[in-house]
Amino acid sequence: MKVLFSEEQLQHGISRMAAAINERFGSEPLTVICVMTGSLILVADLIRQLDMPVKLGSVHASSYKGKTSRSNLQLDASMLPNVKGTNVLIVDDIFDTGHTLNAVHQHIESLEAASVETAVLLYKHGRQELDFKVNFVGFEIPDEFVVGYGLDYQGIYRNLPYVGVLESHDLDPDE
Ligand code: IMP
Ligand code: MG
Q1: What are the sequence ranges of the domains in the chain?
Q2: 99 CA distance to ligand 1 centroid (A)?
Q3: Full-prediction pTM beyond 0.70?
Q4: 69-84: per-residue pLDDT in tens?
């Protein structure tokens, strides 16, 4: 495992994002939507640096990306609070192809939120399949598979306090 962002670097990036979000929304109430499971740790750190009144909600998004199957996004929005007429910030761990954030964004818009903006810890270059503008980005990264600080590979590594790049000997040879 190669460390890409240390704990300290992550906290600096999150503080920068929080400052930009505080500046954007001022004292207006904000509903933060955690895209589970990957953004759990980011959201916990981020919202503690927000100054406005914050409501917290979550959606569960998962996609199955195998060699044989196409990416198939499943969205469970049953845990959402009422967002009608509120300012919403959707928070995800990483922006890759863009399909996850786009789907969550469309869903929240359909619920008549007053505004819908997005924040991600990591923005992966060269992978975007949709024309979608993320409002707040922690770090831009090259096209490498990263884990830690919420991000997983086959369900593990989410608990690492840093973000790392998996090396070939960490990967499952059958995938
Ligand atoms: P998108 O829908 O392609 O933008 O993918 C976003 C989702 O794919 C993220 O919320 C992650 O769960 C997952 N993902 C994409 N790239 C990585 C990665 O490098 N490591 C771990 N998970 C990733
Ligand atoms: Mg995810």
Answers
A1: 2-66+73-143
A2: 10
A3: yes
A4: 456 789 999 999 999 9
